[in-house]
Amino acid sequence: MTGFRPTLLALALCLATSAAVAGSNDAESIDKVNGSIQAVAGQSYGDLSTVNGSIEIDSGARTGDAETVNGHITVADHVQCGDLTTVNGGIHVDANGQVGGGIETVNGGIFVDRGGRVAKDITTVNGAIGLVATDLAGGIDTVNGDVTVGVDSHVHGGLRVEKPTSSWLPISIGKRTPPRIVIGPRAVVDGPLVFEREVRLYVHSSARIGKVTGATAIAFSGDRPPQD
Fold first, then answer.
1. Total domains, the chain
2. In terms of domains, do 11 and 114 share one?
3. Closest to 52 measured CA to CA, from 66, 32, 38
4. What is the pTM of this model?
5. Looking at residue 22, what is its pLDDT?
6. HEC sequence for 178-219
7. pLDDT per position as a tens digit, 201-216
8. 208 shares a domain with 154
9. Could you read off the pLDDT of 105-147 as tens digits, one per residue?
10. Whole-number Å distance between alpha carbons of 144 and 137
11. Are 83 and 154 in a shared domain?
């Protein structure tokens, strides 16, 4: 697992300059600068990209990569897709979603529901990450977000919370609460759990995790971890 890739910050320029050409090369792809995109249920598409707009992938659709700058990405159940990337917006993958790449945001949460499979890393800067009964072949990397590796999830590539720099610090008033990291019932995190900043780490008694650096795990045994 690698750290946060700054290429996301160049996404707006990349999408804006390539939109006119990419669509002409692949009739099944959709490229826009302004406007949302909907991939219709059960249909197949190439890459989906927009700068100012959301992307909605309906149930059973198949797509290539889906990228936006200012917008959410919503993936319905039983979808097969490539990388999911946004700068300002959240990403939600419904039950049994098959993501053949990674999932990345800068300012937005990420959630993958039951039966989800993600082939690469899940990465965000300012946003929560939540997994339920999900198999993640890569790892998790965040800076300021809470992380819940929920019930029956398996993260193969470790978990890292990076030390924030001035450019990644969200605007806030008063004392900033440390990220809350929860490893839930029967969850597994292979590889190291590395914390470069203060966090609150809760690990269920039935979970299995790798070596922890930079934090002390607090064990819990109920359905939910204790409140901070």
1. 2
2. yes
3. 32
4. 0.86
5. 38
6. CCEEEECCCCEECCCEEECCCCEEEEECCCEECCEECCCEEE
7. 999 999 999 999 999 9
8. yes
9. 999 999 999 999 999 999 999 999 999 999 999 999 999 999 9
10. 22
11. no
